[in-house]
From TrEMBL:
Organism: Muricoccus nepalensis
Entry protein name: Branched-chain amino acid ABC transporter permease
Keywords annotated in UniProt: Amino-acid transport, Cell membrane, Membrane, Transmembrane, Transmembrane helix, Transport
Transmembrane domains' residue ranges: 12-34, 40-60, 67-87, 99-117, 145-162, 191-211, 223-253, 259-280
Protein's GO biological process: amino acid transport
Homology family: Belongs to the binding-protein-dependent transport system permease family. LivHM subfamily.
Cellular location(s): Cell membrane
A molecular function GO annotation: transmembrane transporter activity
Lineage top rank: taxon: Bacteria
């Protein structure tokens, strides 16, 4: 039996790690909440963002945390352009076509990354990812503390954008009633593109937070998106508070699972929870539907 102090430390570190998961899930649930589609290119776009953060560090020595503002802006623009001029026109307004287009986009991006970077695994190197902060008897990961704080700030800013700005009101209007929004002069195509851009910006922030403690290769995003899907279902499809709280909860479950079952089985508890939620509460914790 592990001592209570070690269990508490694992739980807190899991809570901190879950913040990065929450950011990945935020982008996924935001796109679903407005466009009502599951974005299969989410993992590939996360991989692109991680390679972008790694490239800025390798070429210019830029700290990943300092890369957050420029990459968030760049990936917002990339997401806007993809939705406005690739995904939207290709889907012709059909959700089934949109799923196929995002799946195709994922395949194209992954293979482009494989062609450029091969299958080699890359990381920042050094020992920055092992920095710890002493909080009483606990040793907490410094990169995860930073990630936790940035994730909370990002979620708060996103919530404020959606609830207190004209853009946010337009996004909520289109999500609830597209035809009614059009009748009052809102352009759904622009709103869809802005929403997709915000989802990609969340991915860029998550990538910068993950990179100090994780590696990157052309397929790494798929592992995170698999967990993000679980979080979205747990919190409720389309729910931003659900994605944030679900991410934190999944981080704790993964950390405690790794402690009790070993690192190789650490994620077992996540998928057990996923099955239980689908069985007993398919709408999730906060979502109106799943």
């Amino acid at each position: 039996m592990f001592p209570p102090a070690l269990i508490a430390e694992a739980a807190v570190n899991g809570l901190l790690a879950g913040a990065a998961y929450a950011l990945v899930a935020l982008g996924l649930t935001l796109v679903y909440g407005v466009l009502h589609i599951v974005n299969f290119a989410h993992g590939a776009l996360l991989t692109c963002a991680m390679f972008a953060a790694w490239g800025l560090h390798a070429a210019f020595g830029l700290d990943p945390y300092l890369s957050i503002p420029p990459l968030a802006v760049a990936f917002f623009g990339l997401g806007y352009a993809l939705q406005r001029w690739v995904i939207g026109p290709s889907s012709h307004g059909d959700d089934g076509n949109t799923l196929l287009v995002t799946l195709g986009l994922s395949i194209v991006l992954e293979n482009a990354l494989l062609a450029v970077f091969r299958s080699d695994t890359r990381s920042l190197g050094g020992d920055a990812g092992f920095d710890v902060v002493e909080v009483g008897p606990m040793l907490l990961s410094y990169p995860r503390l930073v990630g936790f704080a940035v994730a909370l700030v990002t979620a708060a800013l996103l919530w404020a954008l959606l609830s207190a700005t004209d853009t946010g009101r337009a996004i909520r209007a289109v999500a609830k009633e597209k035809l009614g929004a059009q009748l009052v002069g809102i352009d759904p195509r622009h709103v869809y593109a802005v929403t997709f851009g915000l989802g990609c910006a969340c991915l860029a922030i998550a990538a910068c937070l993950l990179l100090p403690t994780f590696y990157v290769n052309p397929r790494v995003g798929n592992a995170f998106v698999l967990v993000a899907f679980t979080i979205v279902v747990l919190g409720g499809m389309g729910s931003i508070p659900g994605a944030l709280l679900g991410g934190l909860f999944v981080g704790v479950v993964e950390s405690l699972g790794g402690l009790f079952l070993g690192d190789s089985l650490g994620q077992l508890g996540i998928f057990v929870i996923f099955i239980l939620v689908l069985l007993f509460r398919p709408t999730g914790l906060f979502g109106p539907r799943a």
